[in-house]
Each structure stands twice: as C-alpha cells, then as structure tokens.
Amino acid sequence: MFGKIIGGIVGAKAADRLQGVSGPGGALLGVGAATLARRLGPVGLVAALAGGYALKRHKDKRNGRQAQAAGSGPGTA
Fold first, then answer.
1. What is the pTM of this model?
2. CA atoms within 13 A of residue 13's CA, in its CB half-sphere
3. Which of 26, 34, 43, 51 could bridge to 3 as Cys pair (CB 3.0-4.6 Å)?
C-alpha cells in the first residue's frame, strides 16, 4: 500500500518534467510502476533496465545518423 502511495507521488512529480503527461496521469504511471516492480522481481527489473538502456542507445544512434545526413547534404559548406 505504501509503495503505491509513494509511486503515485513520485509519478506525479515526474509528470511535471514530461511533455504530454499530466499530474494524475503521472500518478497512475507511478502506481503502475510500483506494481510492476513488485511483480517482476529483481531479475525482471534488471532485464527491464537493460532493455530501456538498449532502446535509448538505439534512438540516440538513429538520431545521430539523421542529423549527420541532414548536415552533409548538397549545398552545405
């Protein structure tokens, strides 16, 4: 019970920093994250963190390639 309350508070605060997520939406995400963390256990949390890190690296690499392609087109000096 306390984990859900703390997750809701943290989610509402995190929603202030995210675009497109309001306070109540962030609270719901926080409660869901607390529940998911309890269900996954330590091995599942490590797998989720590794997957999130891999996704971030993939997106950063893709955005870097797009920026490089946009800057090296014809007519650029």
1. 0.50
2. 6
3. 34
